[in-house]
Amino acid sequence: MQEFLKKLAALVRRREIDTGLEEEIRFHMAERADELENDGLPRRQADLQARREFGHALGISEQGREAWQFRWLEDLIKDLHYAARSLRRTPGFALAAVLSLALGIGVNTSIFSLAVEFLLSEPSARKPSELFFAYLGGNSHQEYRSYEFLRDTGLVPGMAGQSEENEAAWRNGDRTESLYPMFVTRNYFDVVGTPLSMGRGIRPDDEAATVITHRFWQSRLNGDPGVLGRSLHLNGQPYTIVGVLPPVHRTLLGFGFAPDLYLPILKPNRFVMLVIRGASRQEITSRIKVAAQAMDRAMPRGGGDTWAGDIRVFPTAGWGLWSEQSEFMAVAAFFLVLLILVGLVLLLACANVSGMLLARATARWHELAIRQSIGAGRGRLVRQLLAESLLLASAGALAGLALNLILARWAAQTTLPVPVPIRLQIEPDWRLLGYAILVSAAAAVFSGLGPALRATRGALNPMLKSIERQAGGRRFGVRSVLVAGQIAVSAVLLLCGFLFLRNLSASASMELGFDTRETLAASISVSRDRFDAGVPHAYADEALRKVRGVPGVLGAAIVERLPLNDQATMGHTAGSDGLKESIPIKYHSNRVSPGYFQTMGIPFVSGRDFTDADRRGGASVAIINETMARRLFPNSNPVGKRFWDAGDGSRMGWTIVGVVRNSKYFTIGEEGKLALYWPIAQRETVRNRFTMVIRVSGPPEVLLRPVEAALTGHDSAAAVEVKPISQKLAFGLLPSRAGALLFGSIGAVGLLLASVGLYGVVAYTIARRTKEIGLRIAVGASSTDIVKSVLRESLVLLPREPSPAWLPRP
Q1: What is the pLDDT of residues 658-686, one digit of tens each?
Q2: Alpha helices in 154-280 (DSSP H)
Q3: What's the first-to-final CA gap in the chain, in angstroms?
């Protein structure tokens, strides 16, 4: 260790050590000369004899320095210093190479940052590695009473709950706006340890308190410094602002989910996701299992299912979350494909720089030959040439990181067309730095090794005479491989971009099974107090009556989940009048009001629509699509027949009153999905947010304001948003649009790099053939023949090594 520290000190005390070494050498030679003089030699002869015995002073000095040096580091510094001086003499070459690598490294680091933000970002919490989600009975969310039971047992300390469902209507002056809150239990901030920039979190003794995000504070409340203690009217009730979150805040759900504020759960009519803090996953699993067994005894589920039968506990952050959520692996696969494609872009950039370095090294053959003739080995020359590519890659990495920061800032300002608020908060960290260093090192090797080996391979004698080798009819040279590789990679990138663009075009014109041209969608958030008054269905019926009275409206209906925006997938073992034995099924469920299918343009195959008589207290009825009809009733008409959940131990089920055509439910690529519709009036609990679909005559944009005026006239405290349904379907088209944008952009960058590289390689090849072309013209070749020859070799992407100058071609 002492030797290592001395060598480190020698890096900054170089001049002092060199001076001391020279003085010590002079001291030893003077001492030997004095000894020889005392033995009788004249002083002059004694000095000469001492020098002969001591040896070459310069060589001994060099050996002495090596004892105090990291030789490889010293050589690297010298190589980088020489490379910097060499590149300074050719600024155009250096700029072109750095820009190529900056594009390649920039897109790589940007996609890597995006993948880390989506897949591996840690939530804003105290010791996030100690936070876990818990599923009971196979369900991600539990009834609030189940949470209270688990809490009261005391078997699972450090447990909180959160619910991301429903919106909140915010009364802002004379307008009502819709906000997206995160509803949490009152101990949530204590358990999670969410950091705040101002104020405090929600406490167990708070009745109506809220914690707002920094973005909401700045954009909606104008950054009011006295915001703490200010009141917000949400869902008809005042909430006091007690805290403000920091600018960068990530929720436990991840995916960039960014609610506007946090609200306490005031009434036990919600489903919550269980969040538990513990030392280890095994400890939490054992505790939650004991608590679930107690809940099975006190609150049995029925139907043979148990709370303790399917318990899953997994981390809230990192790869552990993804390894437990197989349905999310498609997102990881998408980013893996993106990283592979941007890796191809980096290869294109490396090929460009490699071609330029090859041309540069070829022009320096004479210089390299001189250095070889005075003793430099091939390995030493290769290392020096690699230093240039390392310097270029480092500069490209810095420029690429700057590009990454610009793209990250743009991504943070981008609003995605999704039903929930998403905000990407990409920040540079050690992972990005490590990835940038790894990519830069790979770029330096890929772009510099080939030209360095090529430049130091030639015969020494012709190189000293500045004779560029023009013989040797190898058809496949390094430049040929570079050009062919660039074109092949560009073709792959452009093909991917074209496929996504084609998919986007096909998606936009795809038949979805419902009308998207003359239909409006209105999102309505109502104060929960209005619904708790006991008239939720009467409220919706009156809203429908108001809208149907607007001139130009042909029909209107309420739907719980708008197609291609939300889904509720249910699964159980089903029995029916058309089956001999029960079968497992999984289907998309939705609740709609009478007139929904006519409004959406979904035709009936058989049976009838729901009516006003299909309400609570009446017969349990349902409408299914064609696929579900074929599955449950393969050999008969299902209308009038029944099906049921065979797992609940009873044959109480639903009577089929209609069969409708298949349509798209959650993704535009789905085929043959089972779907079931229930009357919304038979739902026991009604959410304070619902969606209305309105069929109009003519362009839907004309009736936006009249429909909005009718709904706000019905309830001025409701938050209303009316859009053409085609705009509401942006979430369903998001994968195609994102793919087209990302893959199309990557393909365009790849094409640009390939074009520049092809031009550079062909231009360099032609420049080397100047003498040959001149001789051909001298022996009778026309300019047209020369142009044809050049174009022929360029078009076939196999540029040949120049043939001997004395060999004319026809």
Answers
A1: 999 999 888 777 788 899 999 988 876 55
A2: 188-192, 214-219
A3: 72
Nearest residue to 508 via CA among 673, 732, 665? 732
Element housing 53 (H / E): helix 43-54
Looking at residue 194, its pLDDT comes to 92
Asked if 600 and 515 count as a contact pair (C-beta separation under 8 A), the reply is yes
Rounded to whole angstroms, how far apart are CA atoms 171 and 173?
A: 6
C-alpha distances in Å from residue 715, one per residue of 111, 175, 685, 686, 801 = 46, 12, 21, 17, 81
Distance CA 404, CA 103 (A): 10
pLDDT at 807: 34
DSSP helix, strand, coil percent of the chain (3-state; round to 5): 50, 15, 30
Coil, strand or helix at 584:
strand
Residue 233 belongs to what H/E stretch?
strand 231-234
d(CA 734, CA 725): 15
- Pairing state between β 653-660 and 312-315: unpaired
Contact 257, 180 (CB under 8 A): no
Encoded amino acid at 580, one letter: K
List Cα–Cα distances, 564 to 19, 504, 525, 559, in angstroms.
78, 15, 20, 13
Nearest to 162 by CA among 182, 137, 139, 180: 182
Q: Bridge partners of 271? A: 143
Query: What pLDDT sits at residue 389?
Result: 86
* Tens digits of residue pLDDT in 623-640: 999 999 999 998 888 999
* Contacts with 431 (C-beta within 8 Å, 6 or more apart), sequence order: 116, 120
Opening angle at CA 593, ends 591 and 594, nearest 5:
135
Measured distance CA(411)–CA(406) in Å, rounded: 9
Give 366-372 contacts, CB < 8 A, sequence gap 24+.
366/463, 366/464, 366/466, 368/455, 368/456, 368/463, 369/458, 369/460, 369/463, 369/464, 370/464, 372/456, 372/460
Place of tokens 């979805």: 512
Nearest CA to 667 out of 733, 601, 749 is that of: 733
Distance CA 224, CA 238 (A): 18
Write out residues in the chain with pLDDT < 50, as ranges: 320, 468-476, 533-535, 798-810
Could you tell me the sign of the dihedral formed by the alpha carbons of 216, 228, 249, 179, in that order? negative
154: left (phi over 0), alpha (psi -120 to 50) or beta: left
Residues 6+ apart with CB under 8 A from 716: 176
Q: Are strands 583-592 and 653-660 parallel, antiparallel or unpaired?
A: unpaired
| Domain ranges (residues) in the chain | 2-69, 74-120+319-469, 128-317, 519-732
Question: How far, in Å, are 216, 462, 510, 518, 595 from residue 664 at the CA level?
Answer: 35, 72, 10, 18, 19
Contact of 676 with 700, CB cutoff 8 Å: no
146: nearest Cα among 272, 316, 264: 272
How far CA 382 is from CA of 388, 457, 606, in Å, comes to: 10, 10, 79
Closest among 250, 267, 258 to 185, alpha carbons compared:
267
Closest to 211 in 3D by CA, of 219, 221, 224, 201? 201
* HEC assignment per residue over 537-568: HHHHHHHHHHHHCCCCEEEEEEECCCCCCCCC
Nearest to 489 by CA among 110, 797, 93: 797
Show the tokens assigned to 394: 């480092």
Q: What is the greatest pairwise CA distance in the chain?
A: 134
Q: Say if strands 271-277 and 604-607 run parallel, antiparallel, or are unpaired.
A: unpaired
Q: Tell me the whole-structure pTM to 2 decimals.
A: 0.69
- Distance between CA atoms of residues 605 and 633, nearest Å: 14
